[in-house]
Amino acid sequence: MRTWDRAIATAGALTLAVTLAGCNEIAAPKRQQSAAEQRTTFRLGEDSSPQEYEWTDKNDTTTYTVTPTQVEAGTEADVKNSGLDLDELPGPRIPIFVRTTLTITEGKPLWIRVMAGDLAIRATQDERTKALLVWGDVTWPNCPGHNSEKKVAKGKPVEICTTFLVTRGSTAQAVELWQGWHQDPLEWKVNS
């Protein structure tokens, strides 16, 4: 019986030792993020923390910043005169125009659609909406469309204007840049 007890005790000790040894690898320290990288709230005109786009060959990464600079509300008349098919809209809407500067800081040129594709507006009543995607002849006053397939090169920032539609009566509370499902979005508060 004693041999059996010793075998169980030895197996238990060995299992505990292997488990604890594995904990050291799991708890290995991660690279510390700088205060700028941890920050999630900005003022209009402030650059985002560095954003990264990993190319499919995984050997290249492009680093860029997104900087919303101006937020302006349009009117119902803007929607009526825009060329949108009003029957396709889910109720009365007004446009929110957001001017944003996109800047490559490191790496290869990157498409505007990649850099600005995760922008959203948070409006009153916690309404969130992504940019309006339209095909055809839709125009907005003071907010020219942009070629989303255009590439931005390092050292050559591009300013774009993006249109978001929100429920009539809503006001923009913040511009958001989504960071995926597991991180809070970056946010630029709007002074209404």
Give a nutshell description of this structure.
The chain has 192 residues and is α+β, with helices and mostly antiparallel strands. The protein has helices at 2-26, 35-38, 76-80, 112-116; strands at 41-43, 51-54, 61-73, 93-106, 110-111, 119-123, 127-130, 151-152, 158-167, 172-177, 186-189. The protein has two domains: 1-30; 35-189, Sandwich (Immunoglobulin-like).
Description:
With 192 residues, this protein is an alpha+beta fold. The protein has two domains: 30 residues; 155 residues, Sandwich (Immunoglobulin-like), CATH 2.60.40.1240. Helices cover 20% and strands 35% of the residues. It contains four helices and eleven strands; from the N terminus they run ααβββαββαββββββ. The chain has a five-stranded mixed β-sheet with strand order 1-11-10-6-7, with no helix packed on it. A hairpin with a 6-residue loop joins strand 2 and strand 3. The longest helix has 25 residues. The chain is globular.
List the secondary-structure elements in sequence, H or E: HHEEEHEEHEEEEEE
**Class derived from helix and strand content:** alpha+beta
- Describe the sheet with the most strands: 5 strands, mixed
CATH architecture of the largest domain: Sandwich
According to DSSP, the number of beta strands is 11
What is the 3D shape? globular
Number of helices: 4
The number of domains: 2
Mean pLDDT: 80
Given this structure, which CATH class of the largest domain is correct? Answer: Mainly Beta
Strand content: 25-35%
Distance between the termini: 80 Å
Looking at the chains present, what oligomeric state does this protein adopt? single chain
CATH topology of the largest domain: Immunoglobulin-like
The spatial strand order of the largest sheet comes to 1-11-10-6-7
Radius of gyration: 25 Å
